[in-house]
Amino acid sequence: MKNSESKELIEVKSNIFTKFINWLKNLRGKFVHTKENEVTTNIQNIEKQEQNYNNEIILKAKNAYQNYVLNSDYKLGEKIYSLIKERIKINKEQIEKLIEINRVATTYSEIIEILDKEEKNLKDYKKTNIMSKIDSKFMFSQYQVPVGIIAVKTNSFYVAIENIFKAVGTRNAIVVIEENYNKHSIENLILLIVQEALKKFNIDENIIQIVKKGEIKEEDLKAFDIIISEVGKTLEKLETDKMYIYQEDEYFADIVKSEVEKLNSNGMQVEVLKGEMEDCIEKINEDRAFGVCIYTKDRKKAYKFINLVNSENVFFNGTLLNAKKTNKISSVYLTLKNLVCEYGMI
What we know:
By secondary structure, this protein is an alpha/beta fold. It folds into 2 domains: 3-236, Aldehyde Dehydrogenase, Chain A, domain 1 (3-Layer(aba) Sandwich); 243-342, Rossmann fold (3-Layer(aba) Sandwich). The chain is built from 11 helices and 12 strands. The chain has helices at 3-7, 16-50, 56-69, 76-90, 92-102, 108-120, 157-170, 186-200, 253-265, 277-284, 299-308, and strands at 128-133, 138-146, 149-153, 173-178, 208-212, 226-228, 234-236, 243-247, 271-273, 291-295, 313-316, 334-342.
């Protein structure tokens, strides 16, 4: 990448406060413009979401998460981290000046260390734990996936910076909620650098946001999959024993009927869903369902369903009799998902 391209975004050489404040003032306008361009293709989905969540911050996070998690480029995180690091280095002098002005007990080197740590954790994204054959057609696998939409309540500079970088590597949509929000803070400058890098790769910058306390009402916090508090405690959506079958194609009507009978005879209750896939995903994701399956001939729809549904067992044209419990993992930002699908769909 040429240096001229790298420096065009956030190189500040003088009058740091003026330029920084201008960035912040123009930020909403630029992002709204970007979203307006996307609304023509996403408007139906956005309208459906607004029935449940009226908070604009949450809607942006949900859309950003869906776009990012569906991106199949496994090297994307590495590319974004590389560009972020390059642009942070370009702005080293300005970052150090802002640290001094805000009297933050940190250094430029510590910020780089946090970035390096998160970059090393990239290996955990979609890391496969188990992979085995079921029969001549289907394969079972278990891998690590993002939790989804995360709220982080904190007043810690380090926690804020860590989560800015963590959103890139884990592909979770993270909203940092600061009680003592300061629009001229170091974390907001780092946020801008990261968001500009994301846009270079056509990734929705709202995958990471910083907001002040009160911008998200307490009752709206239930929209998040996990809430991480200052003291490190988390509040998760409860896991349930619910099971769903999404019959996307009527071709599978008899197969689905037979599958329901088999599950019922094994003491397992399942609800069959039909209709628009986005609606069905929204319904399923209201809870952490134990198992879900999509029956479709469309492999692209299957890929979307597998990645967007929040369940520990997500299958494609395969019986939910193979559903099983997963173990907890150490990272609160990742969870395990069991997948049963035809060969070539992983």
